[in-house]
Every structure is written in structure tokens, then in C-alpha cells.
Amino acid sequence: MKKISWFSLLLSLLLPAACVKAPPEKPPVAAPAAVPVDWSDVEGWLRDDPRPALEVFRRGCGALRWRSGWEQVCARLSELENPTEVDARQFFRTWFQPWRLQQEDGSATGLLTGYYVPDLRGSRTPDERYRYPLYAVPDDLLVIDLGDLYPELGSYRLRGRLDGRRVVPYWDRAAIDAHPERLVGKELFWVDDPVELFFLQIQGSGRILLPDGERVMVNYADQNGHPYRSIGKLLLEKGAMTREQMSMQNIRAWACRHPDQVAALLEENPSYVFFRELGPEFQSPPGALGIPLMPERSLAVDPRFVPLGAPLFVATTWPVGDAPLWRLMVAQDTGGAIKGRVRADFFWGMGAEAGALAGRMKQDVRLWLLLPRGVTPPSVKGEM
Question: 119 Cβ partners below 8 Å, 6+ apart?
Fold first, then answer.
């Protein structure tokens, strides 16, 4: 039996309990980002016709068929012509395993927002009406892929400009707007509304309606490297509107009532997006895969958790009212604000009607990722 000295016993009696170090607490273990489930667990699976999503997925097979585990699925799909609703549903059930996406605490509810393609009135030359430039990528914007130097950083990219021999941050929104001479020659168009131009940068794609009736599609080309800051959140903090009132429509209305405050509000978001002009063959903007998006069937996702090109089943509600919305969609796009395990952006389409839905969409959502059997979600690979 181990002997205890009188000194040690006395010391333990005299010292307060607070002086005794407790063993360090172990950090909580995060739940896996995705867990396999049965098809019967996919809420609303039988309530949607999967054929439109099947055709969107078919378009993506040109890129997917080179990925390990996807080639057989794409080969089988090429044999499936003019499928019925039953055929399409059976195809997914046969070749895909559903994975429920979940938060670190194991909960399965996340956030679904919406985006669309706005129409802006614009011109190729400036005048008193068309005064706000839409820029192409500046020649002095540097994009440094840090993954080439430090593989542990993955696909992280640094954007900046040269100041002598130093790389410094690129100009932020306020500096770009205050000094248009720095980007002379990079103007693609001039538009008539700075707020609509700001929303175009958030959406990433849009159509420019020219005075002669021509419509030109423009699409995200690059960004200045500064973080995105929500002007909607700033308006909430200022008490300009309540959370229930927050929408793109009400932000526009606020801007109309306070034209003298618009520039200062927009400059609170230092992020700035540059564009490219697309050819007339593009009737819908291309997503991150380079494939044209399909209204109500394309999603923007966080590719750390959802591989681009993969189908997802969405269980949410319509942005107007609380009617259930069940939809099989395809991950075709990404976005600077789309970060997280159970997070997505719903593409509504083009024009004012799509904008009315996208601007009001901020719904709870549950997501099921569909992967070919034997393929593991990217986040699960990193956790194993």
C-alpha cells in the first residue's frame, strides 16, 4: 500500500479546492458533415418529378465522367433515353446513395437563400443617364495561388497589386469608385443605377439591356480580394428595417428614400466584382462548372462539402408563404457568401419575377447529397 506523508496530507487539507487543477476538458467532437441514410429518409423524395434534374445532371457528365466513381453512372445515363418519371427516379435509387448533410452539432437544418439574373439598363458608352461603369478584370489585379507554394493551404488564392516590389491589397470598393481613372479602358458597359449594379455584383451574372433592344449576358470574372460585407445586416444594425422586412425589394425602397446615403452604404462592403461579356449563345449564365444554369434546378454550394456536379435533394418552403418545396437539384455553382455544411443558394432564373422570389428567400432547409455508390463525400474523407 502506498504511504502518504503527513506533509502531503496537511497540504491537501489546507489548500483551497480552487488551487487543485482539474483535468483539461476534451473539446467536443464535431458530428460528421454527411451521414448515409436510406431513401425512405429523404423527405419529399416522391413528391417531385426528377426528370428536369436528371437532364441537368446529364449535361454535367461531360466533366464528371473523368472523376473516379462517376464514370459508370454517366455511362449508364447515356443509355437512358426519354425516361419516364418512374425511370428517372429508379435511376437515382439504383446508382446513388443519399447522404444527409448536417451541422457540427448533428442538427440537419441549415439556410437556403436565392439568387437570380437581374436585368440592368445600360449602354456601351457613357452619358448623363448611363454613368456607373461595369468593369472587366483590371490588368494590375494579381491572383496568387498559395497552394502552389504551400499545399496545406489547398486552393486558397490571394489577390492584390504591386506597389513597387511589394504585393499589397487591391483597391477596395470606395477606392475604385473614387478613382475611376485607375480602370480607364476596362469599362464593359455603363448602367443607370448604382444600386442595381451593386446587386449585380452580389448575384454574379446579369443581362444588360441596351438602348437598341440588344440583351447581353455578363458573368463573374474575378473579385478584388476583399471580404464581402452585407449591407442588409448594416441596415438592420442601423434600425432602418426589421429582420422580417429585410429583402432586396425593401433595400431598393430604402435607397430611393435616402439617395444621399446610398454611396456611403455601398462602400461599407469593400468587395468588388469584375465581369466578362458572354456571347449571344448564352441564354442563361454558366455556373462554376462552365455549364449554363437551369432555373429552379441549379444550386450554389460550398464545394468543401458538396462536389460540383452532384445532385442534391432539397426540402424547404416557398419564399412567399409556408408551402413545402421539395426539389431535386444539381450543385452547379459557388458563391462568396455560400459557406457551410448545410448551406445553399437556389437559382430562380432571370428577370423581375425571379428576382422577387430570390430577394425574399431566406428559408430553413434540409439537404441530401446524392453520390454514386462507393463514392465518399469530400468532408468525410478528411474526417476519417
Answer: 206, 207, 209, 215, 350, 351, 352
